[in-house]
Amino acid sequence: MRALTWQGTRRVRVEDVPDPRIERPDDAIIRITSTAICGSDLHLYEVLGPFLDAGDVLGHEAMGVVEEVGSAITHVAPGDRVVVPFTISCGRCFFCRRGLDSQCETTQVTEHGTGAALLGYSRLYGQVPGAQAELLRVPHADHGLMPVGEELPDHRYLFLSDILPTAWQGVRYADVPEGGTLAVLGLGPVGQLAARIGALQGARVMAIDPVPARREMAARHGIETFAPGEDAVAAIREGTSGRGPDAVVDAVGMEAHGSPAAHAAHRAVGLLPDALGRAALEKAGVDRLAALHTALDLVRRGGTVSLSGVYGGAASPMPLLRMFDKQIQLRMGQANVRAWTDTLMPLVEAPADPLGLDDLVTHRLPLEEAPAAYDMFQRKHDGCVKIVLDPAGSAA
Hints:
alpha/beta, seven-stranded mixed sheet, six-stranded parallel sheet, 13 helices, 19% strand
């Protein structure tokens, strides 16, 4: 089959790799019809090279049609249309039973002290072959695979695999009071959805992003938008009686601009030999914290900061005195996908499209164009917000 493989820092290639096969009774093989590039994939593209091997298949947002199932799979059959969660979880352990499937004890990667294994996401999360491919093996498919309808286009369901539950969890964790105010930092795919979810739930939503096309997209959905800088912070404070918003969702994470030293450190770590690079990231990693520090500064006293953007630093400094003084609540974590999908499915399938899923994908490209797509997404060129890849080769 054809699949997108990691070859080195900022180097990916579509090549022939062996077809996956059923390895366990609870496996399923899926023929991918749509697979998206996530902001988290850019961390592999640029930063987390020490945890990857040349030839690793990338990607963790996917849906498609069931090709084959193991003997333990009874809720789906070949020919069924399904969405694949990016987290690999059993559904039965201590954490899964508590809605924390991203911490699944069955698939935890104990070697690195990390949570549940993830599709296509490096040794840190199990080195499971990813979804930017023609075919995908789905472990623990008895819990993970979600059957979906046949009538709606892929993009109405695809984002149940990751970014929609991630955004939903981010807003839930933000705990915005009824009729309250929410600021969203970053209007990439997760930020776009978090802002729309906040508005749908009745909050006044303000968002900051440097890319005009992303601000224009958010504005179409009733979001007040601002370019980054002191003027934006001042305007949001002024619009919230000088206090700041009740909650802030940081949907940027370690891709934030504004810390040249940390950016240089990320680039350097990505170029180190594997053993040295892994040690640097695990013991001394420092993130670009511009977005997080903005969130902590902006939120009102007694408010909540919710982190949906991924941070990877092990030694990143935090302004604890300021956080303590402001009585800030801080929540974060990998999305517990299956904890939210039953709630989200009616919104995804609603004829009115309340989350604006028909207005999120800016580019649909054949899988063979994935290397150029990664470069475009990383550089935020051509109005790029969300790219969906088509392993069947159609760019329709």
